[in-house]
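Task 17 of the worksheet. Students: predict the tertiary structure of the chain below and write it out as C-alpha cells. Keep your answer in the requested format; marks are given for formatting as well as content.
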Amino acid sequence: MESLRHAKVVPVLRRADGAEAEAVARTLLDAGLPVVELTANTPDWAGALGRLRSSYPRAVLGVGTVCTEDDARAARAAGADFLVSPWPVPEVRAYATAHGLPLCEGGFTPGEIAAAARYGIAKLFPAHAVGPSYLKSVKAVLPAGSQVMPTGGIKLADVPAWLAAGAIAVGIGSDLDRLPQLWHELGAA
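Model answer:
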C-alpha cells in the first residue's frame, strides 16, 4: 500500500476490452507511473493483467470492481498486487486476508469508511458526489492512521485538492492522457 501513497494517483482502467485496457496501461507504465488498476468488469481483464505482469514485473498492478471471490481468485492468479471493491464484500475481504492481498474496500458514509479502513485503505466511492471537503471532515473523526483513497468521477484537475484533504492517493478513470504530466508535477516521479 506504500506504493499507492508514493504514486498519489491510481489510473483506473475500465475499458471496452482487455486489449484496450492493456494498451492504456502500457502507455502509463512506460511513462513512469508505477501503478495501474484494471477493473474486473472489463472483458478479458485477467488476460491483460497476466500479460502486464510478465512485461512489468516491478509495476504495482491492481484489480478493481472485485465483487466476488471468483474475481479475487482470478486477480491473484493473474498477478494482482492489490484488490479494490466498490462496497464491502465479505468473501472478497476473507480471500484477500487469507492470501495477504491488500484490499481497498469501498464505503461512502463515515461509518462505512471507518470500517473499510480497518482492513486496509478505504475507498471513498463515489467521491464526485461529495468533494474534498467531505473527505477532510470524515478524516477528522477517523482513527489515527486511517487511509482513504477517493475514486469515482474525479477530474484530474481536482487531484491536488483531494490530496490536500488527506487522501492517500486518488483513483482516476478519465483524462488519462494528461496523467503522466500531473504525476510528475506532484513530485511523485
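Marker's comment: The beta strands are 9-13, 35-39, 60-64, 82-85, 103-107, 120-124, 147-150, 170-172. The chain has a mean pLDDT of 93.
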